[in-house]
Every structure is written in C-alpha cells, then in structure tokens.
Amino acid sequence: MSQRVAGFGTTVFVEINNLARQHNAVNLGQGAPDFDGPPEVLAAAVEAVNSALNQYAPGIGMPAVREAIAKHAERFYGQKVNPDTEVLVTSGATEGVFAAILGLTDPGDEAIVFEPVYDTYVPNMVMAGVTPRYVALRGKNWTFDPDELAKAFNPRTRAIIVNTPHNPTGKVFSRDEFRLIAALCQKHGVIAITDEVYEHILYDDAVHTRLATLPGMEDRAITISSLGKTFTVTGWKVGWAIGPAALVNAVNQAHQFITYAVASPLQAAAATALRLPFSFFENLQVSYQARCDRMIDVLTNVGFRVFKPAGSYFIMVDWRGVASKQVQDDMQFAEWLIREVGVACIPASPFYQDCDRQLGKYFARFAVCKKDQTLAAAAERISRLG
Ligand SMILES: Cc1ncc(COP(=O)(O)O)c(C=O)c1O
Which atom of ligand 1 is nearest to the CA of 31? Predict the structure, then answer.
C-alpha cells in the first residue's frame, strides 16, 4: 500500500452498516435514501439505454446536459453560465471536488475546510499533496469565528472548500458569512470550491445562497453539485462543476485523466431531471420538511438535544441526555443505540481531524432520507427510550 493512502483507514459507514445488519437495526446512518427517484427521470434513463445512448459521452459532458445545468443555475440563482465553456459533467460531486482540488492546487499549497468536515475532502487533499487548514463550526447554529477564519488564510492558501447545506450539521451558510468568505478570498487570491449537493433540501425559511453569485466571486468560484440527493438517485453518480472557463478548464485537465466521461444514459436522464417544473422542487422540500419535523419531535421527546438543521437530510444531536451512564463517547453511543434500541446513526467524531475528535464526542447524526415506514419503525423504537 502506498504511503499516500496508508493512513486513510476504513470509513465509519462500513463499520456502522455491518453492525446495523448484524442487529437488524433500522438504519438512519448512511445518507442513502430507501425510496426511489421521480418516475419520469428513471424512465428517461431507461429510454436512453434503449435508444443506443450507450457509448462514451464527450469528456466535458453531453451538450444537452450542460445546457440543462446552465439553465438550472439561471432558473434558481440567476447565475448566467455558458454551457460550452463553463460547465463540466463529473462522476458525482465526489469526483468534481477531487478534480477541482487536483486541477487548481499544487503540492505544498494549503486549503481551508470547515470542521466538522465531509469525509472525502481531506483525503482528496492528502492525495493532491495539499495541507488542510481547519476552521471550527461551533454552537447552536454552527457558526465560525471570523478571526479564526481570517487567520487560516496565508500566502500558501490556494482554496477554501465550503459545503452548504452542510453535512453533517445541517448548517446553511448565510449571505453575511459568505460576504466575509468572499472578501477573504479576494484579498488573498483564493479560489472557493463549493459543494452544494443538498441545495434543494432546505427547512423552514432557510435560503440557499450560491457563493459564486456574490460580487467579486464570479472569477474565483467553482460550484459543484449533483443529481443524487435532489433526485434521489445517489447510485447514479452524475455531478457537475460550474465556474469561469479558465477554472473549469483546469478542473477538466484532471477530470479527463480520472474518469474521462460520465455514464451516457444517466447524463441523458439528468437533462430531464434538471428541467422538472418548480412544483417538483417545492414538493421535495415539503416532503423533507415533514420527515425532518417528525424525527426532531421523536428525538427531542426522549431527551436528545437536537440541533435543528436548516438544510441537508441530516439531524445532529447531543446524545448525553439519553444514553446509559456506561456510554462514554459517540462511537460507544452508536453501538449502544444499535444493540439496545435497534436504530443506527453515525457518530460525529470521524468528521473531525484526529486532534479535534473530542469536539465530536457527544454528537451523533441521524439521516431522515427514508420512507415513512422506515421512519415510523425508527420512531417506535426510539420512543421506548422516553
Ligand atoms: C456533502 C456531500 N458532498 C458530496 C456527496 C456525494 O455526492 P455524489 O454522490 O454526487 O458524489 C455527499 C454524499 O453524501 C455529501 O454529503
């Protein structure tokens, strides 16, 4: 095994999934929905397969999909995007972020991330020879200290990665927070890479802001998103990167030698998905709001301290009011919940770097991207704790 990957270990998801299976637990751990995407989107993929759309797509993505991605950006964010030069189709947001890091940074550079941090970014940086700089999200609303952020920027900083709505906390970065980040990016000549895969899953009056649309950011932001969460097709791995032509070209320099091109029939279906009417996106929010509200009630009623999410399909909790005295940390809590209650969640400490793990010690993450009967079964089990 190379030195480069030897330190990665295995992800907590594998461990929790195995334990959940052994104990027949209701799995609210990994963010994989247990229901299907919109039938017209699924049908578009089948039709594409049956219409001989089964050979390599152009490396940058099929023209109809790039066009649909550009239209979607304009429809929801007023962002004007040239589909020929400013859009790249990637194998999910995961490849988009990795290709952006590889295409826009050099070994020895630094990149800033907010902690808790989604688990692919730092291994991506390590593989690219880039050093991560962590800025903590803390408190009820997972805010960051502006001074801490300002201090994280230095002459070696090349990029900042921002995930909004945020996994695992459910935080949605505000426009004011983005003004601060934008000002620092401009002052230090830094590129922002945003991961917006939960852009359409928002609660109450939360508004998703696209950092790339703030004044001064048009030349220095790469926006990444994907079909998986919005259209409940996480297994398709169709994503995209949007940005100024020079940056997208740099991301494509890496992309062309990672996956080259993305599954043609699924790209064709992406064009159908992105053109669905507003009512689809509204219904998605209504259904997620109901799932989230229901689980917040269940969790609150038995004594969890719930961090109400503004977006994403996750709920973070502080478990100390619920678990038995023997439970010392989040890993033990997740195991205890699977064994004693029959429900799986994800411990939060793996979302922190090793030296900060204690910050996640009392937190756990529940996923609500599940059908009614799954949530009902989880609710019934959790309620027995009350
Ligand atoms: C923040 C975040 N980014 C990216 C992904 C993965 O996106 P994709 O399946 O499009 O690669 C996930 C999935 O859990 C996620 O939570």
Answer: 14
Pocket test for ligand 1, best of 197, 222, 231, 314 (most atoms within 8 A of CB): 197
Tell me if 134 CB under 6 Å of ligand 1. Answer: no
pLDDT single digits (tens) 313-342: 999 999 999 998 899 999 999 999 999 999
d(CA 48, CA 269): 7
Contacts 24+ apart (CB under 8 A), 369-373: 369/31, 369/32, 369/33, 369/34, 369/229, 369/232, 369/288, 369/291, 369/313, 370/28, 370/33, 370/34, 370/35, 370/291, 371/34, 371/35
Gap between the Cα atoms of 289 and 201, Å rounded: 8
| Cα separation, 146 vs 170, whole angstroms | 20
Residue bearing the CA closest to ligand 1, atom 10: 92
- Of the given ranges (5-19, 116-130, 143-157), which has the lowest mean pLDDT? 5-19
Relative to the CA of 239, which ligand 1 atom is closest?
10
Structure tokens at 252: 């494509």
Query: Minimal CA–CA distance to 276: which of 134, 89, 72, 121?
Result: 72
Would you say the CB of residue 31 lies under 6 angstroms from ligand 1? yes
Contact by Cβ (8 Å): 82, 71? no
Cα 94 to ligand 1 centroid, rounded to whole Å: 6
Indicate whether residue 118 lines ligand 1 (CB < 6 A).
yes
**pTM of the predicted model as reported, rounded to 2 decimal places:** 0.97
Q: Which of 247, 181, 168, 169 shows the shortest CA–CA distance to 211?
A: 181
| Location of structure tokens 């599940």 | 370
What's the pLDDT tens digit per position in 283-301? Answer: 999 999 999 999 999 999 9
Between helix 278-301 and helix 372-383 the angle, nearest 10°, is 10
The C-alpha atoms of residue 186 and residue 280 are separated, in whole angstroms, by 37
- Cα 93 to ligand 1 centroid, rounded to whole Å: 6
